[in-house]
Specification:
The protein is mainly α. Among the domains are: 63 residues; 50 residues. It contains five helices and two strands; from the N terminus they run αββαααα. The chain has a two-stranded antiparallel sheet with strand order 1-2. The longest helix is centred in the C-terminal third of the chain and has 38 residues. The radius of gyration is 31 Å and the shape is rod-shaped. The relative contact order is 0.05.
């Protein structure tokens, strides 16, 4: 099998050299052979100086969909989600200039927004509690207001318990 594979590589390489001699200046060529479900049999032959990212961009321009399912895309999206999660936790920032910084920043911004809302809810809840205390001390207020306010405080308490610091 190794001799057959070696011979194939030689024939394919010779063919690619002949094809590349007919291409316009600056054009690059790649040959990809795969057998579904057998990544160990994958073969990739490419010109010197070929930029893999440009190959992906070319395939995208020619119909490669972002909706398809492939391991590269899953890994990429897992990395983006992980960067956002780390941003929320304010840990493991990406190195300077890394593409993941954008997603880490999104996580930080979402966490900051959440903290701002929690602080506002705590303040509102405390003011509502103070109003309730005043009502109980003064008497004569509509009991429906008291009951509605107490129900609102329970909702606020339940929401705040999810973000206990």
């Amino acid at each position: 099998m190794a001799a057959i594979l070696e011979r194939f590589h030689q024939v394919a390489n010779d063919a690619l050299v002949k094809i590349s001699e007919q291409l316009w200046p600056g054009a690059k060529i790649a040959l990809v052979i795969y057998t579904h479900g057998k990544p160990g049999e994958d073969i990739v032959l490419k010109d010197q100086g070929l930029v893999d990212d440009e190959v992906v961009s070319t395939l995208r321009r020619r119909g490669l969909s972002i909706d398809g399912d492939n391991a590269y895309k899953r890994d990429l999206l897992d990395s983006a989600v992980g960067a956002m999660a780390f941003g929320v936790q304010n840990r493991n920032p990406p190195p300077a200039g890394h593409w993941g910084q954008r997603f880490w920043d999104i996580g930080r911004e979402e966490r900051a927004s959440c903290e701002e809302l929690v602080a506002a809810l705590k303040l509102t809840r405390e003011n509502l509690r103070a109003c309730q205390a005043t009502i109980h001390l003064c008497g004569g207020f509509d009991p429906a207001y008291v009951n509605d306010a107490q129900a609102a405080m329970k909702i606020a308490d339940a929401a705040l318990s999810k973000f206990a610091n």
